[in-house]
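Fig. S4 source data, part A: sequence.
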Amino acid sequence: MKQSYKKTPIEKLVSPVQRFIRQEKSGGIVLGISVVVALILANSPWAEAYHHVLEHRFGFLWDGNSYFEFNLHHWINDGLMAIFFFVVGLELKREIVGGELSNPRKALLPIAAAIGGMVVPAAIYLSLNPSGEVHSGWGIPMATDIAFALGVLYLLGSRIPLTLKVFLTALAIVDDLGAVLVIAFFYTSNISVAHLIIGGLVLFTMYLGNKLGVRSILFYAVLGIGGVWSTFLLSGVHATIAAVLAAFTIPADVKIKEAVFADSIQGLLNRFKGLDPNNAIPTLTNKQLHLLEEMNNSTAAATPPLQRLEHAMHPLVTFVIIPIFALANAGVSLNLDPATLFSTNVAMGVALGLLIGKVVGVVGFTLLLIKLKIAPFPKGMNLRNLFGLGLLASIGFTMSLFVTSLAFTNEEYMTQAKIGIFAASIIGGILGYMVLNRQSKNSHLK
């Protein structure tokens, strides 16, 4: 008779949280709550204290000199968000090596949709803000928030074909890559070549370690944080770019193949079963301990470090880093004079860029490739649900807020941009859900 595993009291308490974390829509829900909390704080009697906390400065003091001294808001945007971009880099590499972007023909349609969803919004923004300081905000409406967009999509459950979820995921990942390139080339300050060369040498060392077969996470962590991130931060190139580049040096291969791993584990299990049981006491015998250690080593050898890192860090990014970023950046006072809000075309450019530009770009570029017979419609996709995906792509939040912090130093422009992001994202998310929900019901009736 198979023995059942008895959960400890703490496991019973934690298991509902673990079930919530495993759900695809959970990240979007937590992010939404964080945005609402930030808005409440910024429009409450605690607004001054809320902003004051973000201005506290932290750094390292050595021999009377301070290093890396930034305020809390800067640490969140350049420190914590570097971890977010590191995971984005891991996802990008995984998709390129063995995911949806590894097959050029399958990847062509979401790549075209993502390009359209970046070019058209930027063009709309620039047409409304052709010159001056406001001109630099053109990158804000280019970005799609993958957590929110997929969160809305997963609310529809199994009624939505898997191909739509894959298409939107691939689109959002290419969109993230586009945002990273835009930040690298257009949103950097004066560059220190010396620091950049040092960072490049450390990055090359990590790449060399990969090629030599180094699979220690500690090796890549020490060089990535202590070398690449810190030197890029001092170089003037945005530190988040260092995180993406570091992610691309993480090994994505396995030491032993699946069949060899299965045989190895089966052999170890058979040996484990053949040992005398140790039921009388709670500890293991030395032989049992050594066999379990061999199992762990075999499992580690059969798991690419890239996927092991991505799997381990994804909950941290989704449920800690992105919510903290939202709390620090989404706090906008809604007590605005309409004349102040529309004193420039920033809010309008961002809102129309996201809501109109994303839909026109995603749908238009996709249909263009289909009409030219370069790529076919994926199975289960039609014009209506493509339109719904285009609306979900207009949800900007995380990446758009991040680019806003890079594009502007003027608080008024930043507030206008954030209002445009919120308006477009909320409208796009609701309309996208309605369109896809109606489409799924019609398909079900047929």
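Fig. S4 source data, part B ends here. Residues 26-188+238-253+304-445 form a domain with the Na+/H+ antiporter like fold fold (CATH 1.20.1530.10).
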